[in-house]
Amino acid sequence: MKDRNRVPVSFSILHSMWSVCKKELRQFFSSLTGYIAIIVFLLVSGLVLFVFDDNIFDFGYATLDRFFQLAPWILLLLIPAITMRSFAEEFKTGTYEILQTRPLTRWQIISGKYFGSLLVVFIALIPTVIYIFSVQKLSSNDGLDMGATIGSYIGLFFLAAVFTAISICCSSFTNNAVVAFIAGLIGCALLYYGFSAISKLTALNNGPDYYVEMLGIDFHYRSISRGLIDTRDIIYFLSVIFLFLTITNRNLLKK
Length: 255
Hints:
With about 260 residues, the chain is mainly α. The protein has one domain. The protein has helices at about 1-30, 30-50, 55-60, 65-85, 90-95, 95-100, 105-125, 130-140, 145-170, 175-200, 210-215, 215-225, 230-255.
């Protein structure tokens, strides 16, 4: 009997999360703002990769390094823009109270909103696969190092997952979407590059600088981007995601 009951319960939990997830998708794509955000991301990354100075034609060999160096900074703007209304808009319009009346736990609400926002980011990243085929066709030698390219995409996905968790957390602290956007932007920037910047201080040279840099997202993103998937990097990303979603849960408990 226990085994028979597990499937319906699990399905009910997933169905509840999916309903919140669909709500997030509808909210983002209900206006031109959502489409414009994705188009700007693709346009900027494409211009930097093929048009602006230091583009791939200046390297003399097939590489997408320029894209993977720039993508985190574009995602710093894109992801807070995607998530800024997740909780802030619910608090402002009073619909969060209505959401609480549904048979959903706080974790189901948070997970639904998190995966909904992450799915939007994933949709934005999918068209960038065109860059791989374009560079391969333009290459006159062996083409791209596919191991490093796949590793870079895995790193970029984990980076986006962390940025989404941070931005969702920031949105749960306010009922103002603009404040949520700015807080998410600052939070992602600090955790992405802040520790790397601190590690370059002269006082931390020859020892502590390495360990300080390890606390930052940039260190682990660059590690995976080399094409070597290290379990320590995966554990780091999952830990940061869980930390910020837990903070979100605590914050909603207070409200």
